[in-house]
């Protein structure tokens, strides 16, 4: 798996570049600002980009905006955003890009295991979606939250689904039966008016439903 890393912190950037190859990840470039990120991706054509949200020159949301631009150019490019906080505006746009596939949003302070992190990167590179449950929780608190109609248990199931887990894994994590998880997922699909389709990932659309409402 070929990866470009964008992180303004030298220690974190070099740490990731040193650790990820132990898990079969080839770091083809590591950069510290968004213009260099754009150039590196266009030059190396990686499978995955791992980018910080705040980067030079303004330290606002340059990394996230660069990721959105890259996904606009190539919707199939896998992107994982790393942040210390939830940046609502561009977070929603990033997660909605590429039909919600091959994308992730993780909080730095909640990454506690390198092997698990590498597994999450691989899951995104293979077309999955990984969203930190704290990101889901914060975005659900927005006053225009379209998920208010979901039950507490359905919200729990959705948070686990957002991490890319299968029904079986969700059942283990939530102490439910697999049939129970499937029922909750079916209910939330119905409540969010997500019809059956061979062309869309309804699990991802369920997570994105409330994100899109922020720009309405």
TrEMBL record:
InterPro entries: CheY-like_superfamily, NreC/VraR/RcsB-like_REC, Sig_transdc_resp-reg_C-effctor, Sig_transdc_resp-reg_receiver, Tscrpt_reg_LuxR_C, WalR-like. It comes from the Bacteria. GO terms for biological process: phosphorelay signal transduction system; regulation of DNA-templated transcription. The modification 4-aspartylphosphate is found at residue 52. Residues 2-123 form the Response regulatory domain. Residues 143-213 form the HTH luxR-type domain. Keywords: DNA-binding, Phosphoprotein, Transcription, Transcription regulation. One of its GO terms (molecular function) is DNA binding. Pfam families: GerE, Response_reg. SUPFAM superfamilies: C-terminal effector domain of the bipartite response regulators, CheY-like. This is Two component transcriptional regulator, LuxR family. The lineage of its organism: Bacteria, Bacillati, Actinomycetota, Actinomycetes, Micromonosporales.
């Amino acid at each position: 798996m070929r990866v470009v890393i964008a992180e303004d912190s030298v220690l974190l950037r070099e740490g990731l570049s040193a650790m990820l190859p132990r898990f079969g990840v080839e770091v083809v470039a590591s950069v510290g600002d968004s213009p260099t990120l754009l150039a590196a991706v266009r030059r190396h054509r990686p499978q995955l980009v791992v980018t910080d949200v705040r980067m030079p020159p303004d330290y606002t949301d340059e990394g996230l905006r660069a990721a959105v631009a890259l996904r606009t150019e190539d919707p199939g490019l896998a992107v994982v955003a790393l942040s210390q906080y939830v940046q609502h505006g561009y977070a929603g746009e990033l997660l909605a890009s590429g039909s919600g596939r091959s994308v992730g949003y993780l909080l730095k302070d909640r990454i506690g295991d390198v092997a698990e992190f590498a597994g999450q990167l691989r899951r995104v590179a293979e077309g999955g979606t990984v969203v930190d449950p704290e990101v889901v929780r914060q975005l659900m608190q927005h006053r225009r939250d379209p998920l208010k109609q979901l039950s507490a248990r359905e919200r729990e199931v959705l948070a686990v689904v957002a991490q890319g887990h299968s029904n079986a894994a969700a059942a283990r994590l939530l102490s439910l039966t697999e049939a129970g998880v499937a029922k909750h997922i079916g209910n939330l699909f119905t409540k969010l008016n997500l019809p059956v389709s061979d062309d869309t990932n309804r699990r991802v659309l369920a997570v994105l439903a409330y994100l899109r409402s922020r720009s309405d």
